[in-house]
């Protein structure tokens, strides 16, 4: 059986560990690697997109990172309970025109008993920034 440690129920240490593992995976910008942390039928809301399952996750992330260059993400644990974690995050990227943005957001995660994320709801807002205002390297 496929498992992703740490497993729920979470405590402060394991919740922080889960958040750091997610941050590390997303910063690889490898859609397949990222998708393996989610259940086969994982349900997502990412901005105004709704996707289901690893195949759609890979497709969404591939398109995302084709447009968001020099992407760098930082996540922070906000709250947790038995099998749920809430995070705040920010990331920076530049587009094809060389314009820089910082995206701010919140995610609500729900995990199955094997530590795979079965639900991810993300609210994200982008703010234009100057290249000199970057703070995530």
From TrEMBL:
InterPro entries in the record: DUF1348, NTF2-like_dom_sf
Identify the species of origin: Mucilaginibacter dorajii
Tell me what this protein is called: Nuclear transport factor 2 family protein
């Amino acid at each position: 059986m496929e498992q992703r440690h740490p497993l729920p129920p979470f405590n402060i240490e394991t919740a922080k560990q889960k958040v750091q593992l997610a941050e590390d995976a997303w910063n690889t910008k490898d859609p397949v690697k990222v998708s393996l942390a989610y259940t086969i039928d994982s349900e997502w809301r990412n901005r105004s997109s709704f996707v289901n399952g690893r195949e759609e996750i890979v497709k969404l992330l591939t398109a995302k990172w084709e447009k968001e260059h020099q992407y760098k993400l930082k996540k922070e644990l906000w709250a947790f309970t038995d099998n749920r974690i809430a995070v705040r995050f920010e990331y920076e990227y530049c587009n094809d025109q060389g314009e820089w943005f910082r995206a701010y957001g919140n995610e609500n995660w729900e995990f199955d008993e094997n530590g795979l994320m079965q639900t991810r709801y993300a609210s994200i807002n982008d703010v234009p920034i100057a290249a000199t205002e970057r703070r995530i390297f």
